[in-house]
Design goal:
The protein is an alpha+beta fold. It is built from four helices and seven strands. The model has no long low-confidence stretch (mean pLDDT 91). InterPro entries: PD(D/E)XK_Endonuc, tRNA_endonuc-like_dom_sf.
Length: 133
């Protein structure tokens, strides 16, 4: 998919709006480390970094830089059937999942088949983390 990054951002934005969460696109000129801004209350705003990839893209790691300024990471992965999955992690969870690696790996290949890494898979559809931040 040519515009997979924008696709992922808009899908996450739509998912949050469907759950009655007030969310906006970040202003890229001064908010470069994150893609979406969520307003939880008049005094509580959270920043979301969205990273998107295709599961079967021949890259067996699809690494993500988590050393940026954001509160939540949403990894969007399109599988070979065209379905989209969302993995929601707090910044701390993303850093912990990264471990000692330079970047957070998201996918792997085993026996010729692509998989989402366990460190990421356990966070599927955990939107409540954002809503209750």
């Amino acid at each position: 998919m040519k515009y997979i990054g924008k696709y992922g951002e808009y899908r996450v934005l739509a998912c949050l709006l469907e759950q009655d969460v007030e969310v906006y696109q970040a202003i890229k000129t001064n908010q470069a480390d994150y893609d979406l801004t969520v307003v939880l209350s008049p005094s509580k705003v959270v920043r979301i970094q969205v990273k998107s990839t295709e599961l079967n893209n021949k890259s067996t790691n699809n690494p993500i830089d988590v050393d940026k300024e954001f509160d939540f990471l949403v990894v969007v992965i399109l599988d070979e059937n065209g379905s989209t999955k969302f993995y929601v992690m707090s910044k701390n969870e993303a850093v912990e999942a990264k471990g000692t690696s330079k970047k957070l790996g998201t996918t792997k290949m085993k026996d010729g088949k692509y998989y989402v890494k366990n460190e990421i898979a356990s966070h599927e559809n955990q939107w409540e983390k954002i809503k209750s931040a």
